[in-house]
Design a protein that fits this description.
Blueprint lengths: L9 E7 L2 E7 L5 H8 L18 E4 L2 E4 L12 E3 L13 H8 L9 H14 L5 H7 L11 H14 L5
Parallel strand pairs: 1-5
Antiparallel strand pairs: 1-2, 3-4, 3-5
Helix pairs in contact: 2-5
Bound molecules: FE2/S2 (inorganic) cluster (FES) (2 copies).
């Protein structure tokens, strides 16, 4: 044998942030690389690339997944939401993003896209989460900067606002 086996590319069609998208990729390409490189959506961050840090978290059919552990072909036919999909229609930050900014829920920002996706999934399921719910929802998302307190606060604020309250 010898030499590298030639990988075939296939066209992957999926919905990303509400839009039908397609691009060619080899079967070994992760969803993370596909989003960043084939679709140009670089908001999803690459950290450890082996499922530990959570920086690459995206929503797959509403559930947060680590896009470094999913092959792009596995997402074919499914709906993916990335951090770019959390912005408002006019491109300004969405409610959760605003709350993170107000509460200083980010410093370097590296973990932030994954945190936001994890938080969004939590709030979709639990509009009135307890602090424990929030901490559990982001337990797989590592942040080296904030100590998590302001992140929890930001998610609580966004939840309260979505319910029509203040905090
Ligand atoms: S890059 Fe995927 S979990 Fe770290
Ligand atoms: S803000 Fe720097 S890793 Fe979380």
């Amino acid at each position: 044998m010898g030499g590298l086996a030639r990988m075939t590319t296939e066209t992957i069609r999926l919905t990303v942030n509400g839009r039908a998208r397609e691009a060619a990729a080899e079967p070994r390409v992760t969803l993370l690389d596909f989003l960043r490189e084939a679709l140009g959506l670089t908001g999803t961050h690459m950290g450890c690339e082996h499922g530990v840090c959570g920086a690459c978290t995206v929503s797959l059919d509403g559930a947060p997944v680590r896009s470094c552990l999913v092959f792009a072909v596995q997402a074919a036919g499914h709906a993916v939401t990335t951090v770019e999909g959390l912005a408002r229609e006019d491109g300004t930050p969405g409610a959760l993003q605003e709350a993170f900014a107000e509460c200083h829920g980010l410093q370097c920002g590296y973990c932030t896209p994954g945190m936001l996706i994890a938080a969004e999934a939590l709030l979709a399921e639990r509009p009135d989460p307890t602090e424990d719910d929030i901490r559990e929802a982001i337990a797989g998302n590592l942040c080296r900067c904030t100590g998590y307190v302001q992140i929890v606060e930001a998610i609580r604020l966004a939840a309260a606002r979505a319910r029509g309250g203040d905090r």
